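Ops channel
N.P.: pipeline sanity check, posting one input/output pair.
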């Protein structure tokens, strides 16, 4: 038997917690630092994670996954407290909403990914909430890797819970 939706959400929340603790561990001034040439600032990195979380939440609500957001708030990039609150709020809302699907019904709701085919590829025209949860988790993990590079490049101490990556 495969992994349950509840287990997937637990994993997602774990990785979301790593992102949250990463933001909590830096000073607000660090949000403006661009630690690696041709990369965004710390603030842009966290704001991007929030934008993608919002895209996945919108997909659950509307039935369409569209990464081409028109409501990106670049001012958040320099507001640590608001970024943190929004990241936590959207994670909680996504987790709660996806858990409303029972194991039997999780593949009954299909999400149209046509607007985001450029990023996902032809094999992902329609996905279930289970697949959506896997994709958002993969995105969180990817950005944990990017944040690890940012931390190393700036010699910022990793949060204690990053011991899971052997980085403490």
């Amino acid at each position: 038997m495969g992994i349950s939706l509840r287990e997937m959400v637990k994993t997602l929340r774990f990785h979301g917690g790593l992102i949250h603790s990463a933001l909590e561990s830096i000073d607000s001034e660090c949000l403006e630092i661009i630690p690696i040439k041709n990369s965004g600032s710390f603030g842009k990195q966290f704001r991007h994670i929030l934008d993608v979380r919002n895209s996945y939440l919108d997909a659950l609500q509307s039935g369409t996954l569209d990464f081409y957001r028109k409501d990106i708030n670049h001012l958040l990039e320099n507001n640590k407290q608001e970024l943190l609150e929004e990241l936590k709020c959207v994670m909680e809302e996504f987790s709660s909403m996806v858990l409303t699907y029972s194991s039997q019904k999780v593949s009954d709701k299909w999400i149209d990914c046509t607007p985001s085919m450029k990023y996902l590829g032809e094999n992902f025209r329609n996905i279930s909430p289970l697949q959506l949860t896997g994709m958002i988790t993969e995105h969180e993990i990817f950005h944990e890797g990017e944040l690890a590079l940012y931390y190393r490049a700036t010699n910022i101490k990793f949060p204690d819970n990053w011991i899971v990556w052997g980085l403490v």
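N.P.: looks fine end to end. Helices lie at 5-24, 42-62, 80-98, 117-120, 129-154.
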